[in-house]
Amino acid sequence: MDIELFIEFIQVNAGVYSDAMAVDYLKTLLALCDGREPKQI
Fold this sequence. Notes:
This protein has 41 residues and is mostly helical.
């Protein structure tokens, strides 16, 4: 996913997601970019 599209998505959906969900989503993206399997919560 392109980072600009991701930022736009977060801005549009800011009221829908809690901070914790946003953090988990970012951690998952970082893990995927790093080539690791994301941890299941």
